[in-house]
Structures are given as C-alpha cells and as structure tokens.
Amino acid sequence: MLLRFFLMGLDRKAGIVLTILAFLAVAVPVMTLAVPADSPFHLSVFTVSLLGKYLCFALLALALDLVWGYCGILSLGHAAFFALGGYAMGMYLMRQIGPRGVYGNPVLPDFMVFLNWKELPWYWLGFDQFWFAAIMVLVVPGALAFAFGWFAFRSRVTGVYLSIITQALTFALLLAFFRNDMGFGGNNGLTDFKDILGYDIQADTTRVALFVATVVALALSYMIASGVIASKLGKVLVALRDAESRVRFMGYDTESYKLFAWTLSACMAGVAGALYVPQVGIINPSEFAPASSIEAVIWVAVGGRGTLAGAILGAVLVNMGKSYFTGALPELWLFALGGLFVAVTLFLPKGLLGLWGQLTARLPGRKAAAPPNAHPANQATGQTTGRKGA
Length: 390
Hints:
mainly alpha; 4 strands; 69% helix; globular
C-alpha cells in the first residue's frame, strides 16, 4: 500500500528530481572525503554545509508549495514551523553539551546558568534523547498547525485574511522567543553545539552525513507530496484551490482536507528546520521573522507555484543569488530580491519551470497544432484534451 502510494506520484519530472538528488547523495561525499584537497574536483566542508542549507530551504519551499500551489493557502508564516523544528533539534544538541559548557553544569545549558536558573524546565525533559527530539520535530510544528488550522478553517477564514493571521502567528512567536524567561536562550538562541548522536558536529564526516540526511529527507518529502497530489485527495485539494464553494456544495468536508494538507506541510517544514540547525550551528528567534516566510513565498513564485520541482529550483537559485549578492553587493540584495519577485509576477506567472512551456507555446508549429476551437484560457493553462493527459 505504501509503495503504491509512493509510485503513484512518480512521473517524468519526479524522476528527474530524484535522479539529481541521488547523484548529489553520492557525488558530494566522494568529492569531499575521497578527492584530494588540491584537486579542482574537491568540495570543501564549507561548500557542503552551504549546499545542505540550500536543500533545507528547498524542503521548506516544497512544504509551502504543497499548501499554496495545490490548496490555494498562501501562508506568510511558514517560517514558524521551520523554526519550531529547529528549536526542537537545538534543544537536543544543547543537552549533548553536558559539562563541556562554559559553566561546566552537566544538566543546565550555559544561558540558564547565566540567568540563575536552578533546575531544568519541564519542557526540556526528554530532549537528551535523539529519538524524543526527532518525534518532537514533527509533533510540535504539527500540533501547532493542527490547532491553528482547525480554528482558522472552521471559521472559514480564507484569502488575504488567512495570510495575515499566519504572519501574525509567526510574529507572536518571534516576540515570545525573544524573552529570556521563555527558557530558549532569548535573542542569542541556542548555539555552541558539540555532538550529534555521539559524533563531533564539526567533523568532516559528520557534515557530509548531515548533507546526505538532508538529501534523503528532501527526496522522501518530494515523494510524499507527489503521492498526495497524484491521489484522489490531491485532486480534491486542487479543486478546493480553484472553487472551494463548489466542492463544499458537492458534499466534501473541505475544512478537513485543508487541515490535513496544512498539518502535513508544517511537519515537512519542521524537518527542514531540524536539519538546518546542526548545519549552520545556531537557532535564534530571527528564524521566526515574517521576512523569512515572505522569502519562502518568493522562492516558490520564482521556481513555479504548483510544480513541486519548481519550488526546489527556486529555493536553491534564489539562495545562491543571496549568498553572492550579500557578499559582493550587500546593499543591493533586497532591491534585487524585490525586483526579481515583481519580474516573475509580471512576466513569468508559472515561474522559471514554466518558462520552457511559455516559449514553446509561442512557436508557430505549436500554434498551428492547437485545436481551432480551443478556448484561449485553456490553451494558456494546458487544459486542452491532448495536453491534459501528457
């Protein structure tokens, strides 16, 4: 049953994405650990961590595209779920420091000793075990998304109003996590990690293993998302995006469908945050910033909303551009990002992944091949009989 679900969503585009990810999972470790450092084919550990960070963002974009591209829910607060997953992993990594901290306390993290805390808060219990932290990476973002979505969707909050309250959610969490009495390190957050599963987190092999884990997580998430979209559930989600009132009139419990997609997306974002933290070495309240959620929306728009592969492509390309511009021309990055979003919105409504389709659609041969009575709107969205089955 599970194998059938995964295979159901595997089309040509999914095959390309999974092949690229499989290549990265093999090539990057070999180029980092086996190729000599003086070889032009050698990859530094810094580059591996940077690639790992890009793929974490790609996983966040994939999660956002599932609800925005296929369910019509524009979330401006998905960074909240990403950060919660990151904090869950960060709490585990802090507990692994033990007496090697600055103050040498075997139980309390350094920031708690500094703030004169006497005992570990109850919500930190269990985070000395990896399996518990791994469960919390899914449970905490998923539970918050379920509670938030249950109230929002049952109240029929949609459109721009839903987008605004998602942004309010992540901003409220930003303010809460800034407070020292929350027990999450205040504005400094959680950092100075030493080990993960008993391995030195700074070791080359550990860095490579974290990258491979990120590739595997992204591939599995892609297969899950593709399976959902290809199933009957996915068809209902797309129908909800296009005409929610009609779907409700047909007898579907639309709120339950939206709640499932929303919670699944939050769990994916939590996994992305959990993989992000050990690779960058820090998690702090800035990850809750609304700007982070808006950037994720831009990644999806640039790559192609409603394409999954486009979300991954957009996240990687935009963050590569960010790494370059913030180093070479830091004062121009925000202008470049804003201009990119405007340009994509005006000229590439289907994103970079839809660019090839737009160009080929303008070819004289394609126009002549189109049915003479085909509706222009259907030609633009690829809903003619022949293309729909492709």
